[in-house]
């Protein structure tokens, strides 16, 4: 039965949309993708065509403004319901910031990254940085994060042994039960995962659809997480192999690592260190053969107390080929690498600055040592150059490096210059909480781990949970307005090239597993038993989140095991092992299909994004370019919904059908094709509870738009 009142309402809305002089602000659109900035990554002196879209015959004049510059834009073309205005601007050497002024009769408005607005702060201006390029291979790339110790044990001969050495006042432990839950103080527990294990699972990663592996730290280190580096020049032999393996374990209860001769042999003998590096070279070669890139974790703000420059454990003190550490001797060549607060304590001076006061994490003293600065710059270049050929760096606590913001920015400018000279296609991706804008000006980082403009807003919307599972907020759960406003605001910190390579994660080694957040249990592992992390989880919500991840601007990044249904509260419970042989096959197959969806459509890598609709637990947006138009719709409610919304702002006209190409719901997912006709610029979709659908625009008369 035809709902005449409904279609009468649509006809009136369509009439209002088209009639001039009724101003239609929702039709105005521009961004920094190739659709509206061409070329998107220009060189200095190159001309760039900049476009703005408006409703057909809806405005009188459009101006581009940049500082004192005001340029009247020309009507370039009309397509469907839209006019496109454009102008060409020759780029200089510095960042070109601009916004638009739109005249409608005697009225006018401004448009920038947050839309039609009166706030003309530079932060919200569109920006083009001549000479700034992010690697094409990283734009929208499917990344996979691996904490090696917990991924797969490919060679038990290199496992850390019980009482091999002492770490933070206790002997280290070799875990024999792969499925054991990590202990609350689990940094000294080792499960035996290694590079040989990654090599054996490369076919699995390739089949999953992975294009980039991001490794948590691989360099020599006494902890399982390896964020306390012992030697930046070498991969840890416990992850590689031992050529020489001799010496004694510590007596039970002993904490004196000068007696840990087996450990000293394993991590100081050059034969073992070189063998581990060769294993890494081989791994990268095998990854590259499969079209998989490799990103290393660079921990350059601090090192570890075991580090050969400090040598607080005195394991290098008597080893041939090693200079005295700064803890051991005031005459150490590394003394300037650290800031000592007592200059009269040597030998064995424990009065030094630690990061956040941790003596196990000595803060590196860049301002006091040009030698240290050059050493780390050389390390940055070494690992992205032959024979190692890594494809870039993830930078740990990057904003903390140095003792002042001024030096921090100075260092990262030098780091970028050095690394890009060594490997122009290397990515520089920083861990950062808060506004990264001052580092994303084209001369420091390429991009960041995307907490503010991805992980946090997504988590609040779908689960109401904070990313550590430390709190629950009913007011944010399902709050589409908050989600859209937060995303718009934080995405303004990124220029277009940075946004397209941003690391978009649901989970990682520092936060609770996303699947656990769906059970809305507030707390950490000490509050619950092992099974609590998986009790009451809602896999359908996880599937919704993955669909958003795979259709959102940036590089969707899977934390190892998420695809197999691994649960866990925050660190260290989130570092459970990959459940080989016990995977959630439904979740795994879903991830393979969702990744395939992402990789099939170029628009997910480089297309524009526009929000279409938001309601309580309901969200719709589109990704579009001049060839593809795809709408993504979510119903995160625990009941079915009939959702009616406008799609014309995405350039989807009447005479088009939106055909489902991917759906999720409580029973799983499917790729059935169902058509939804566009009438008066709108569609109506019946959604089951906790569901999502991806819809591709198809011309009824001409077939596929592509």
For the record, the CATH architecture of the domain at 20-131 stands as Sandwich
- Would you report the number of β strands? 34
Number of helices: 14
Distance between the termini: 33 Å
Query: Tell me about the biggest sheet?
Result: 8 strands, parallel
Strand content: 15-25%
Poorly predicted runs: 15-20, 702-706
Assembly classification: single chain
Class per helix and strand makeup: alpha+beta
| Spatial extent as radius of gyration | 27 Å
Share in helix = 10-25%
Which homologous superfamily in CATH is the superfamily of the domain at 20-131?
A: Immunoglobulins
Strands of the widest sheet, in order across it, are 22-21-20-19-16-11-24-23
CATH topology of the domain at 20-131: Immunoglobulin-like
**What's the CATH first level of the domain at 20-131?**
Mainly Beta
Q: Quick one: overall form?
A: globular
Mean pLDDT: 95
Q: Helices and strands in order, then pairings?
A:
Layout: H1 4-18, E1 37-38, E2 47-55, E3 61-66, E4 69-72, E5 74-79, E6 82-90, E7 96-104, E8 107-112, E9 115-117, E10 126-128, E11 143-146, E12 166-167, E13 170-171, E14 173-174, E15 189-190, H2 195-200, H3 202-208, E16 212-215, E17 219-220, E18 231-235, H4 261-268, H5 270-289, E19 293-298, H6 370-382, E20 392-395, H7 405-422, E21 427-430, E22 447-448, H8 451-463, H9 480-491, H10 496-499, E23 503-505, H11 514-517, H12 539-551, E24 555-559, H13 585-600, H14 603-606, E25 608-615, E26 618-624, E27 629-635, E28 641-646, E29 656-665, E30 668-670, E31 675-677, E32 682-687, E33 691-699, E34 703-704
Parallel strand pairs: 11-16, 11-24, 14-15, 16-19, 19-20, 20-21, 21-22, 23-24
Antiparallel strand pairs: 1-2, 2-6, 3-4, 3-7, 5-6, 7-8, 7-10, 8-9, 12-13, 17-18, 25-26, 26-27, 27-33, 28-32, 29-30, 29-31, 29-33, 33-34
């Amino acid at each position: 039965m035809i709902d005449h009142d409904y279609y009468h309402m649509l006809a009136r809305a369509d009439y209002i949309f088209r009639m001039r002089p009724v101003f239609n602000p929702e039709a105005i659109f521009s961004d920094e993708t190739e659709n509206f900035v061409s070329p998107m990554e220009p060189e200095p002196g190159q001309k760039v065509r900049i476009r703005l879209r408006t409703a057909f015959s809806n405005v009188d004049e459009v101006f581009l403004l940049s500082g004192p510059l005001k340029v009247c834009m020309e009507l370039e073309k009309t397509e469907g319901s839209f006019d496109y205005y454009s102008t060409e601007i020759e780029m200089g050497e510095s960042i070109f910031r601009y916004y638009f002024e739109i005249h409608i009769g005697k009225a006018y408005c401004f448009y920038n990254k947050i839309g039609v607005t009166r706030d003309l702060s530079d932060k919200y201006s569109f920006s083009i940085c001549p000479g700034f390029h992010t690697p094409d291979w990283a734009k929208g790339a499917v990344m996979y994060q691996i904490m090696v110790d917990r991924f797969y044990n490919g060679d038990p001969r290199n496992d850390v042994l019980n009482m091999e050495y002492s770490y933070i006042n206790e002997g280290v432990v070799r875990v024999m039960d792969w499925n054991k839950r990590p202990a609350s103080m689990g940094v000294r527990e080792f499960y035996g995962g290694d590079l040989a294990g990654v090599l054996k699972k490369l076919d699995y990663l390739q089949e999953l659809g992975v294009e980039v592996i991001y490794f948590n730290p691989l360099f020599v280190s006494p902890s399982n997480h390896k964020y306390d580096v012992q030697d930046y020049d070498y991969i840890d032999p416990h992850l590689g192999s031992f050529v020489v393996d001799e010496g004694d374990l510590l007596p039970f209860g002993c904490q004196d690592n000068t007696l840990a001769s087996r450990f000293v042999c394993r991590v100081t003998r050059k034969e073992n260190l070189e063998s581990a590096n060769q294993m890494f070279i081989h791994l990268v070669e095998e990854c590259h053969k499969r079209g998989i890139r490799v990103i290393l974790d660079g921990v350059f703000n601090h090192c570890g107390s075991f580090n050969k420059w400090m040598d607080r454990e005195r394991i290098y003190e008597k080893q041939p080929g090693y200079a005295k550490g700064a803890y051991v001797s005031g005459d150490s060549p590394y003394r300037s690498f650290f800031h000592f607060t007592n200059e009269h304590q040597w030998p064995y001076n424990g009065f030094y600055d630690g990061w956040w006061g941790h003596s196990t994490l000595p803060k590196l003293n860049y301002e006091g040592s040009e030698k240290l600065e050059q050493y780390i710059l050389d390390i940055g270049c070494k690992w992205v150059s032959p024979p190692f050929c890594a494809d870039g760096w993830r930078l740990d606590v990057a904003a903390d490096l140095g003792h002042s913001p001024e030096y921090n920015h100075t260092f990262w400018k030098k780091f970028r210059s050095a690394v890009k000279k060594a490997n122009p296609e290397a990515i520089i991706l920083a861990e950062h909480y808060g506004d990264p804008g001052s580092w994303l000006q084209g001369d420091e980082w390429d991009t960041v781990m995307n907490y503010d403009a991805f992980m946090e807003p997504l988590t609040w919307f779908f689960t109401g949970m904070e990313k550590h599972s430390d709190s629950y907020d009913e007011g944010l759960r399902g709050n589409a307005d908050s989600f859209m406003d937060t995303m718009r605001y934080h995405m303004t910190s990124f220029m277009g090239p940075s946004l397209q390579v941003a690391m978009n994660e649901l989970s990682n080694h520092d936060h609770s597993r996303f699947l656990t957040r769906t059970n809305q249990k507030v707390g950490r592992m000490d509050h619950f038993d092992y099974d609590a992390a998986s009790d009451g989880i809602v896999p359908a919500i996880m599937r919704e989140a993955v669909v958003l991840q795979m259709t959102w601007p940036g590089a969707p990044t899977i934390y190892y095991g998420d695809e197999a249904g691994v649960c866990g509260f925050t660190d260290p419970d989130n570092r459970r092992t990959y459940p080989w042989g016990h995977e959630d096959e439904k979740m795994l197959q879903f991830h393979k299909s969702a990744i395939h969806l992402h990789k099939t459509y170029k628009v997910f890598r480089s297309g524009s994004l526009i929000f279409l609709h938001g309601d309580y637990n309901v969200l719709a947006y589109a990704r579009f370019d001049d060839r593809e138009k795809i709408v993504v719709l979510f119903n995160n409610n625990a009941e079915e919904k009939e959702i009616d919304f406008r799609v014309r702002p995405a350039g989807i006209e009447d005479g088009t059908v939106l055909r489902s190409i991917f759906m999720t719901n409580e029973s799983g997912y499917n790729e059935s094709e169902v058509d939804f006709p566009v009438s008066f610029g709108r569609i109506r979709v019946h959604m089951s509870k906790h569901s999502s659908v991806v819809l591709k625009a198809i011309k009824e008369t001409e077939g596929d738009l592509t």
